[in-house]
Amino acid sequence: MYTFLAGILLLIIGYFTYGKIVEKIFGVKEERDTPAYTSSDGVDYMPMSTPRNSLIQLLNIAGVGPIFGPIMGALYGPVAFIWIVVGCIFAGAVHDYLTGMISIRNRGAHLPELAGKFLGRFMKHVVNGFAVLLLLLVATVFVTAPADLLYNLMNGWVALGYIIGAIFVYYLLATLLPIDKIIGRVYPIFGALLVISAIGVAVGMIVTGAPIPELTLANFHPDNAPIFPLLFLTISCGAISGFHATQTPIISRTTKGEKQGRKIFYGMMIAEGIIAMIWAAAAMSLFDGPVGLNELLNNGGTAAVVSEASTLMLGAIGGTLAVLGVIILPITSGDTAFRSARMIIADYIRFPQKKIMNRLWIALPLFAISIALTQIDFNLLWRYFSWANQSTAVIALFVGSMYLFIAKKNYWIALIPGTFMLMATMTYILNAPIGFRLPMNISYIGATIITIALVITFFLAAVKARRKNIPLEEDITNWKKSA
């Protein structure tokens, strides 16, 4: 219990300490107009309040990651707590903050645009295709996953096909309508339910004295479970996730002022880390250790763990509400995944989105592809998701590093976690069955060589970019004229 409570406390302290350090290094300009005003279009660009933006951001980035990932990570034991806390404070929250703030400085640009500006035009095309593919996979899985949970919750009295159809209709409306019409209205309610359910599980564990294991030297490295790199890809959204880099620009277009950035981007990642800690602790404490947890995962999957933990801690009614809170997570990430894909494609082909027909021209093909993908077995495709997700995080952190390097600011806050995650993703793809299947010792050597080479390439490009004096932010005067 002490390890769990200390982790929660450290996350909160991290927000008020390291979060302020990161904010100071970046250097907010409160007097600078944001895209919400300079590019206001009544659809994607419009000012919204900080509480609303914060809850939308939390639900955008959460998905099922901060619950399902930590539940799987709980198989490694209490060492998972360390990665959630350290990863969240020094990697994930920095990743989200820099992505959001750099986007604000560049007309609400998405990651492909930012990669093109700071890492080169070739990277723009690569990241654009990569991001759209990732978002389509996420959006499609976030149709089927909540549909299955709802089907089970209702004991099958509504056909699964009807549930999937209803979710698709909601996604289409959320993708097409102005952000304040659906997302801006229902997300605060959904966010409250998510927070209440997580707090309920946490309080239930504390009150009942759930046997949450403590971190010791004996369980620091579980048998037959190599921590590096697997743990750092298994627990993604609760520590760091590249999916967040596709979501933060949605809110960078509705943020009123740069001073709000730490609360919205850094703060909501800390909140996600707390949720991840709660569910990792629940998975560790309620199912007779890794053996019992593994058996439940094999028989019923992560959804069974969520349902069982919620019922044990909160009873039948409270447990049902908690499961609903979990169901909300994929739904509220699926809709913004489609919305992000629409916006990224629109930016890429420079297709204005103020008219609804323009939005339809992009959205309908995306939904057609997604509907077709629901007919395919995702088990093979989804094995690549963790690697693709964390690779996107690496790209976003290197974009942040380049921005800070050009600005002659402390770029190490982004480059160190970026380099660490680069090493983790390269080791994984070299060793994993879905990759090159090399022995682990060879994978370590190969990943080290690749990482060193890419970091050297980064520094060469960064020095060149600084000499070229690449503008870090777009001229807001030109924004106003174009608007």
General description of the model:
The chain crosses the membrane at residues 75-98, 126-145, 157-179, 186-207, 227-245, 265-287, 312-332, 360-378, 384-405, 412-430, 442-463. InterPro entries: CstA (IPR051605), CstA_N (IPR003706). The protein is mainly α and 483 residues long. The protein has a single domain, classed as Amino acid/polyamine transporter I (Up-down Bundle), CATH 1.20.1740.10. Helix content is 75%, strand content 0%. The radius of gyration is 21 Å and the shape is globular. The mean pLDDT is 87.
Task: Indicate the topology.
Blueprint: H1 2-16, H2 18-26, H3 35-38, H4 50-62, H5 65-73, H6 79-105, H7 111-119, H8 121-153, H9 160-176, H10 183-208, H11 230-234, H12 243-252, H13 261-285, H14 289-349, H15 356-373, H16 378-382, H17 385-406, H18 412-431, H19 440-468, H20 476-482
Helix pairs in contact: 1-6, 1-13, 2-6, 4-10, 4-12, 4-13, 4-14, 5-13, 5-14, 6-12, 6-13, 6-17, 6-18, 7-8, 7-17, 8-9, 8-14, 8-15, 8-17, 9-14, 9-15, 10-13, 10-14, 12-14, 13-14, 14-15, 17-18, 17-19, 18-19
Précis, in short:
With 483 residues, the protein is an all-alpha fold. The protein has a single domain (2-384), classed as Amino acid/polyamine transporter I, CATH 1.20.1740. The protein is built from 20 helices and no strands.
Q: Structurally, how many domains make up the residues?
A: 1
Task: Kindly identify the CATH topology.
Answer: Amino acid/polyamine transporter I
- Bin the helical content: over 70%
Radius of gyration: 21 Å
CATH class: Mainly Alpha
Distance between the termini: 54 Å
Shape: globular
Strand content: under 5%
> What about the largest sheet?
none
Please state the structural category. mainly alpha
CATH architecture: Up-down Bundle
